Amino acid sequence: MWEVFISYKKGVQDPEGETTLKGLKILGFKEIEDVRTAKVFRVKGKISKERIEEACKKLLANPISQDYKIRKVDEEEGMRVRKIKNGTVIDHINPSQSLNVLRIIGIDSNYKKTTVTVAMNVPSRKMGLKDIVKVEGIELSEEEVNKIALISPNATINIIRDYKVVEKRKVKLPDIVEGVIKCANRNCITNSEKVQTKFYVESRNPIKLRCYYCERIMEEEDIAKQF
Ligand SMILES: [Zn+2]
Known about the structure:
By secondary structure, the protein is an alpha+beta fold. The protein has helices spanning about 15-25, 50-60, 80, 100-105, 140-145, 190, 220-225, and strands at about 1-10, 40-45, 65-70, 85-95, 115-125, 130-135, 155-160, 165-170, 175-180, 200-205, 205-210, 215-220. The model has no long low-confidence stretch (mean pLDDT about 90).
């Protein structure tokens, strides 16, 4: 998608801007010195910058009285993903799962180390809706983020340095999952004693985990219930 920003050239009369300025003054906004109107067109389609420029000259802008600026906007990844300076962006999280993702990677209300931003139910071309989590200043390790695959197998991890994505990878469920989820077998030792759960990953699609202690097979349903 392209954004075309149209504004009046210097010295050109802008009646709407002038009227607005007068109105604001009457309302007591004495500190406002000038108001100029501008317009933004959002243009979708597989079209080059040159062609957009052509469209500007022919219709979108009046070349005599108006200036235009064109910039490309990536709708899906958008600015949401790129805006942090350094850190980790977890993208393509299944919709409404971002809080569970935070829980899995160990970010809770006691986590005061850094800025964490959560975007829920963001429109996505690929997924319909998705969640995004941005953790500033921290590059999460593969081990830390891979467990996310339990609830969000399509999640992608972007490592950001100086506003640039320097690494991009999909989450991959590890061979062994420790902690995170409880065993569904009530009689399992992990449910009665202070033993951390441990599961072998038997299958990834569909997800099947086998408890190291009681052999209970955990299916997607058993896992989803816990989140
Ligand atoms: Zn068990």
